[in-house]
Structure formats: C-alpha cells, structure tokens
Specification:
Elements: E1 12-17, H1 21-32, E2 36-42, H2 48-56, E3 60-62, H3 65-69, E4 76-79, H4 83-95, E5 99-102, H5 110-114
Parallel strand pairs: 1-2, 1-4, 2-3, 4-5
C-alpha cells in the first residue's frame, strides 16, 4: 500500500524500529525539528523498547516490529535494527502502508533489494 498523504495541520508521526545508539540519536534529533513526533518504538529485546520509550517520552512501545508496522498513528518508520533485519523490517513497514527511512544497508543482497 502507498503511504497516505500527511495532512499539513498535524506532525509527521514516526515509529522507530530498533533502540540502539543510532535510534537514540535520531530520536533526539527529531525532537529538534518542528512538525515531527515519535509515536511508537519497537525492539526485539524484552524491556528495551519500554526503556527507550520512557527515556524519549514516546507514548507506545512494542516487543514485535510487526506490531509497530501496522499502527494507524505512524506515518513513517525509521529502521535502525541490525543489518540482517533491515529487509524484513522495511518490508513490514511498507506493507503496513508506511513511508520508510532505513539505515544502511537496506538489504544484504540483490535478491532482497529487488523484492
């Protein structure tokens, strides 16, 4: 599904997949840019998403990336997971109708990139 247009009268709502160093930097940077809000975060390690959410004042957290990918209050997903998860995380978000910003590399091989 194509991402829906974002109305001009509300912030761009971000979901973050992964809770490591780069995700923390992005969360801090997004706070500095008017018109952006982080609405959800996900991590595979139990408790990590909740701790990240508390640290960055994010209202929702998930222990499964797929749950974040289908949230109606997320417009864009930032993929900051480990390299081997980028492909599946980005696809889940795209299938959920989200725009995706993915850390490098997007995929591990040509087959995944073509998909």
């Amino acid at each position: 599904a194509m991402p829906a247009p974002i109305p001009a009268d509300r912030p761009i709502r971000w979901g973050i997949m992964g809770c490591g160093r780069i995700a923390r930097a992005i969360a801090a940077d997004l706070r500095l840019v008017p018109g952006n809000a982080i609405t959800a975060v996900a991590a595979a390690t139990p408790g990590k998403a909740e701790a990240f959410a508390r640290e960055h004042d994010v209202p929702a957290w998930h222990a499964r990336y797929e749950e974040l990918a289908v949230r109606e209050d997320v417009d864009v997903v930032y993929v900051a997971t480990t390299h081997e998860r980028h492909h599946s995380n980005a696809l889940a978000a795209l299938r959920g109708g989200k725009a995706v910003l993915c850390e490098k590399p997007l995929t591990l091989n040509t087959r995944q990139a073509e998909e």
